[in-house]
Please model this.
Amino acid sequence: MSKNNRWIFIIGLLVGLAVVAALALPQLRTYTFHATVLQSPDKAPDFELETATGPVSLDEFEGKIVLLYFGYTFCPDVCPATLAEISKALDMIGKKAEDVQLIMISVDPTRDTIEMLRDYVTHFHPSFLGATGSEEEIATIATLYGIFFEKHEGTKASGYLVDHTATVMAIDQEGHLKLIFSYGTPAQEIAEDLDHLLN
Model:
């Protein structure tokens, strides 16, 4: 090999390595989640509640990411804002959204009928499920997930209101509680975290 050819070979090799490195480095970089990350070795507690399409349990969604949210249809601001952001996030991830299931568990089972829940959640996204049960069932499930809720007096127009934990929990495809999105997390950040979990 002549001296010129040797230099051409070396330069070509270096350029090739630089291209490979440029393509590989983004894949090797550790992703930093926007949500709080949990590393529990145990599966998220299962439950069975009623929805407009029949009984639903957490186990039946294995293989999908489940977004679990505790809210209620009479919620004046927090619930609609949260569900709207999740809906936007699902739109952002496109076809991958088929592998994400949001379930809103009612913290107001006295007023939230199955039909009301269905109409409320599907207003935000057609795939969303609204689930309910007895007050005892809801209280038990909420406790298992560390969710606080409590009734308090509202106005004559609104009736009582329910204070509740406003986080959204992401349960991964194997059934482990993986992420907790705090209230106010923007759709873009939710979408980025979901997209990474689905890769």
Observations:
- The longest strand covers residues 65-71.
- The CA atoms of residues 84 and 124 lie 6 Å apart.
- Helices lie at 3-28, 78-92, 114-124, 135-144, 187-198.
